[in-house]
Amino acid sequence: MTNYFPNVPIVKYEGKDSKNPFSFKYYDAKKVIHGKTMEEHLKFAMSWWHTMVAGGTDPFGAETMDRSYGKKEPMDIAKARADAAFELMTKLGIKYFCFHDVDIAPQGSNFEETRKNFHEMVDYIEEKMKGTDIKLLWGTANVFSNPRYMHGAGTSPNADSFAYAASQIKNAIDATIQLGGMGYVFWGGREGYETLLNTDMKLELDNMARLMKMAVEYGRKKGFKGDFYIEPKPKEPTKHQYDFDSATVLAFLRKYGLEKDFKLNIEANHATLAGHTFQHELATARINGVFGSVDANQGDPALGWDTDQFPTDIYSATLAMYEIIKAGGFVNGGLNFDAKVRRGSFEFDDLALGYIAGMDTFALALIKAYEIIDDGRIDEFIKARYSSYSTGIGKKIVEGKTSLEELEQYTIDNGEPTMESGRQEYLESVLNNILFK
């Protein structure tokens, strides 16, 4: 059997003082934190597209990485990618993976040939999964790269493009069910517009909802019991995408009655592009009961596109894990590394090193997030800050037992409010104290 990562050993936890690059400094899979192992808390997943397929292109340059794995024929390359994927996941101790349909199988000369290739590769991956504890986290269909989707898929003005996308989605749902996945993701890569001068926004949104409803109906009919996800992203490639951010997606779900079946798959880099923090997007999903899964990466505010870097920012990752814990942790979702090595990091070893960095980052973030919660100072401050709503007129406001007339009389009787400091600087110092002790 070919060894695609000969320099990568079985990566083990060696502690924060280890200088071995192929070791975990913080991720100790079997360490129990608050009743669950790190492995159970974090549910790390490998992204098939960035890890096994991406060749290092960027908006200004060609591929710098050979991802043909020594093969020439498209199906041979696809199978070699699967072999390499399972080798890498086994060596890193990653128990989940995610895919788009076109990541795992080459496209043929027509739909029937493409579907045949896809089913053959799904069967091949299913065989690879046997005898391992590696599972599918979620599947999806790439209905944005091909020129047939230049104007969108579910939002295309061309009904034939809509039908083609629906056909891909049907087969991707079948594959997700066959491989035991508990999530199916809609990322509307081109579900948006460049100009309203040529766009019927209402029809496009109505059609996107129709496609999602058909997907839910089909999936449930076929026995899929997992979650459907929408992944928010504001722009790039289209100027304005309909899944702009968590709040926009939530409004869409509620308008079309999809909130019972759909949750959100939140990506850090997409939050950056929307002008939000990762924590904000997660908190919005959490407080609205639609938190589902996470694409773990980070962007660069100095660059104007989706850089999809491996996450190494402990501050951001800790606040993300804080929200995930507050949401009750993962159920069907997990932490999918929708991240790619930099264009200059072209060796196979770099893939393993990127994953080690990301896994250690979120392992440390998990530890620190629980330290914030156990410390209690931040939660206690927030509780005290809103204490006026637990008694008196504040309690009546919360319970809906007052009126504008009563509130006016209360203001006349009590006069100007006595304001209290928000103490942002103090709370940031508390966070630093916990992060760096």
Strand order of the largest sheet: 7-6-5-14-13-12-10-8
| Main beta sheet | 8 strands, parallel
Structural class based on helices, strands and sheet pairing: alpha/beta
Cα-atom Rg, whole angstroms? 24 Å
Order of helices and strands: EEEEHEHHEHHEHEEHEEHEHHEHEHHHHH
Give the overall shape.
Answer: globular
CA(first)-CA(last) distance? 46 Å
Helix percent band = 40-55%
> Number of helical runs?
16
Write a structural description.
This protein is of the alpha/beta class and 437 residues long. It is built from 16 helices and 14 strands. Strands 7-6-5-14-13-12-10-8 form an eight-stranded parallel β-sheet. A hairpin with a 2-residue loop joins strand 3 and strand 4. Helix 3 runs parallel beside helix 5, helix 6 packs parallel to helix 7 and helix 11 packs across helix 12. The longest helix is centred in the C-terminal third of the chain and has 28 residues. The chain starts with 11 loop residues before the first strand and ends with a helix. The model has no long low-confidence stretch (mean pLDDT 97).
In short:
The chain has 437 residues and is of the alpha/beta class. It has helices at residues 38-42, 48-53, 74-92, 101-104, 111-129, 159-178, 201-221, 246-255, 268-273, 278-287, 314-326, 348-375, 377-385, 392-398, 404-414, 424-435, and strands at residues 12-13, 23-24, 32-33, 36-37, 44-47, 96-100, 135-140, 183-186, 192-193, 227-230, 240-241, 262-267, 291-295, 335-337. Helices cover 46% and strands 11% of the residues.
